Write a sequence for this structure.
């Protein structure tokens, strides 16, 4: 009986593992960022990019959960005074490592159209403006709420558009910061993304 049960148990575990793997799809992703800073920062949008990896696990025909790991270049453009009644447009580069976690809903069965929302914690990697280090002006973490929609094709390719809404004040008020203690700044980023996922 034990000799018969062991192969059955191993076969059941292998079948379950393979079935689960078919529901998990992973792959690379990259995208275009149209970024700005909200709240007290008076700036204009700048173009950046994001690149990384994406994973999606199907819970049912209509729901899945996703997890990405991306590097994101964002920030803003702003006018810097350089003399009497003169300004110079500079670009603020903000570098982050984000971990978007989101739920994805498919309103129509057998159609790749989807909508998503979640939470996006991030780690600050560094900042610069006009070649000067601005690390002391920004906090070490960020939190955004990504919302959006997209479409998945049968060949594994997918595209989406997301709006990452910053809900955390990233302005640092240290002695070396360019901001004072009353300044509130948040990231605001529109992302146009392309991904390719395959079954494990």
């Amino acid at each position: 009986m034990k000799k018969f049960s062991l192969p059955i148990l191993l076969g059941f575990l292998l079948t379950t593992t393979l079935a689960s793997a078919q529901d998990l799809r992973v792959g690379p992703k990259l995208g275009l960022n149209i970024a700005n800073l909200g709240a007290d920062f008076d700036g204009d949008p700048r173009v950046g990019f994001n690149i990384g990896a994406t994973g999606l696990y199907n819970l049912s025909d209509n729901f899945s959960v996703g997890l990405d790991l991306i590097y994101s270049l964002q920030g803003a453009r702003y006018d810097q005074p350089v003399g009497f009644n003169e300004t110079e447009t500079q670009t603020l580069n903000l570098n982050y490592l984000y971990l978007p976690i989101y739920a994805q809903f498919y309103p129509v069965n057998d159609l790749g159209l989807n909508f998503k929302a979640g939470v996006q914690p991030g780690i600050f990697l560094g900042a610069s403006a006009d070649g000067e280090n601005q690390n002391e002006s920004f906090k070490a973490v960020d939190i955004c709420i990504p919302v959006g929609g997209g479409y998945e094709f049968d060949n594994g390719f997918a595209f989406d558009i997301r709006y990452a809404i910053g809900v955390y004040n990233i302005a640092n008020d240290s002695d070396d910061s360019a901001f004072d203690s009353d300044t509130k700044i948040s990231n605001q980023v529109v992302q146009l993304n392309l991904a390719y996922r395959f079954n494990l």
About this structure: The mean pLDDT is 89. Residues 2-22 form the longest helix (21 residues). DSSP finds one helix and eleven strands in the chain. The first strand starts at residue 24 and ends at 39.
